[in-house]
Design goal:
The chain is α+β, with helices and mostly antiparallel strands and about 100 residues long. It has a single domain (about 5-100), classed as Beta Polymerase, domain 2. Helix content is about 30%, strand content about 30%. It contains three helices and six strands; from the N terminus they run ββαβββααβ. Strands 3-4-5-2-1-6 form a six-stranded mixed beta sheet. A hairpin with a 3-residue loop joins strand 4 (about 65-70) and strand 5. It is globular, with a radius of gyration of 13 Å. The N and C termini lie close together (about 10 Å). The relative contact order is 0.27.
Length: about 100
């Protein structure tokens, strides 16, 4: 995601707060095109290198939010406006920050 210039990438360990996943990855895409590119690259790279596919993908690049569910890891890609609106970091503030790339 960093190579595709996603902004404010955050990996949260939510194992103590949630039974449905172990980690959240949250990142900001500054355009629809970048959001689509991030999703396409993640799906292709994980399929080729790790032989895993998302359980489902929700949202479209134009919506400002996309979610990739890999079971124990859930990836959220937001537009700056929707990331600020939903503030997942605040909702999950008790989760341990594993990585934060700004």
């Amino acid at each position: 995601m960093e190579e595709k210039q996603a902004q404010d990438i955050l990996l949260l360990d939510i194992r103590k707060q949630a039974p449905f996943a172990d980690y959240f990855v949250i990142a900001t895409a500054t355009s629809e095109r970048q959001s689509k590119s991030l999703v396409d690259t993640l799906v292709d790279t994980l399929r080729q290198k790790a032989r895993i596919r998302p359980l489902f993908i929700e949202g479209e690049s134009y919506s400002g939010w996309q979610l990739l569910d890999y079971g124990q890891v859930i990836v959220h890609i937001f537009s700056p406006e929707l990331r600020d609106y939903y503030r997942l970091e605040e909702l999950w503030r008790e989760a341990r920050v594993v990585v934060h790339l700004q």
